[in-house]
Write a structure and sequence with these properties.
Number of helices: 11
CATH topology of the largest domain: Mitochondrial carrier fold
Subcellular location: Mitochondrion inner membrane
Pfam family, one: Mito_carr
Number of strands: 0
Main location: mitochondrion
Distance between the termini: 63 Å
CATH class of the largest domain: Mainly Alpha
Shape: globular
Organism: Clohesyomyces aquaticus
Order of helices and strands: HHHHHHHHHHH
Oligomer: single chain
Largest sheet: none
Number of domains: 2
CATH superfamily of the largest domain: Mitochondrial carrier domain
Membrane topology: Multi-pass membrane protein
Structural class: mainly alpha
Helix content: over 70%
Length: 342
């Protein structure tokens, strides 16, 4: 009886031993192959299905973070312009130059880079998802269209841009909120400033003092803004490149031209929502526990009544200077990374 029991046990041990030897042999062969031909191993890894699916997201995040590092001072100026004269038609009318002069007068030129950590985190989350989703949707739509013997058009590009922007905005809202809080903190009286040390400090303190759901304050206009921005940026970039591909312009010139066109339409469609997003994310509770704005529609209503319709487009030039180069740098870097990782 014991012999009968021991035979399967000994067989199992033998099988396990053989499996272990096989695994070790395979690992040894893989290591030897990597040592002899590291380029081939790297190529195989980069061409794996997992990496092929991840590249659009990785490339998008790296492109967005590169652009934010360059554009952050302009974004700081844009936020200060949007918050100036809140609640009054005849309030202060700052210019980009006066905002820079005021910041420089404080003796802290690096204040122009306030919130950079939040901006980079936002790009790492938001742009990674935005460009990654868009590229994934476009590949799926292209494959589906080719199977039907047709080509995708502007409608499909616009739909992909709107969907990608909306999904990414929800994911990136906490970092966006932290960025606005850090950039607007310097407008408060010294005694009331939070003096956030980093984006992690801002997120932690906001969640602790105001509740974790507050991290998604202004998410509605953020999503609408992102959809409008992506509709203008991604759809028009893709469409412009498609229209320019048969021209005599070089590939680089086509990309630059398409990026400039995309930046203009992205700015035009998204600025009103960006304005409202900034106001909602900056607001904190009054002493009586109420908020200045009840939501996106209430903010639109109050600003229109108290400050006028044109207030939504205050600083359009600054916004375009912030959006267009950011769009151009992001799209060009993403385009280049997409080319080298094909």
């Amino acid at each position: 009886m014991s012999a009968t029991v021991n035979m399967p046990a000994s067989r199992a041990i033998e099988n396990a031993k053989q499996t272990g030897e096989t695994v070790l042999s395979d690992a040894s062969s893989a290591m030897k192959s990597a040592a002899e031909n590291p380029k081939q191993v790297t190529t195989n890894f980069l061409q794996s299905p997992f990496m092929r699916g991840a590249f659009p997201f990785i490339n998008g995040g790296l492109a967005g973070m590169t652009a934010t590092t360059v554009i952050q001072p302009v974004d700081m100026i844009k936020v200060r312009l949007q918050l100036a004269g809140e609640g009054a038609k005849t309030g202060p009318k700052p210019t980009p130059i006066s905002v820079v002069r005021d910041i420089m007068a404080s003796g802290k030129a690096m204040d122009l880079y306030t919130g950079l950590s939040a901006g980079l985190l936002r790009q790492a989350v938001y742009t990674t998802a935005r460009l990654g989703f868009f590229d994934t949707f476009m590949k799926t739509l292209t494959k589906s269209a080719e199977a039907k013997g047709s080509k995708i058009g502007f409608k499909e590009r616009a739909g992909a841009g709107l969907t990608a922007g909306g999904l990414a905005a929800m994911v990136g809202n906490p970092a966006d909120l932290a960025l606005i809080r850090m950039q607007s903190d310097g407008l408060k009286p010294v005694a009331q400033r939070e003096n956030y040390k980093s984006v992690i400090d801002a997120l932690t303190r906001i969640a602790k003092n105001e509740g974790i759901t507050r991290l998604w304050a202004g998410s509605y206009p953020t999503v609408v803004r992102a959809m409008a921005l992506n509709f203008g940026q991604l759809a028009f970039f893709s469409e412009a490149k498609n229209q320019l591909k048969d021209t005599s312009l070089s590939s680089r010139t086509q990309t630059l031209t398409a990026s400039a066109v995309a930046g203009f339409f992205a700015s035009f469609f998204s600025l009103p929502f960006d304005f409202v997003k900034t106001r909602l994310q900056k607001q904190t509770k009054r002493p009586d526990g109420t908020l200045p704005y009840r939501g996106m529609l209430d903010c639109f209503k109050q600003v229109t009544k108290q400050e006028g319709l044109l207030r939504f487009y205050r600083g359009f030039g600054t916004y375009y200077v912030r959006i267009a180069p950011h769009a151009m740098i992001t799209l060009i870097v993403a385009d280049y990374l997409g080319f080298i990782t094909k």
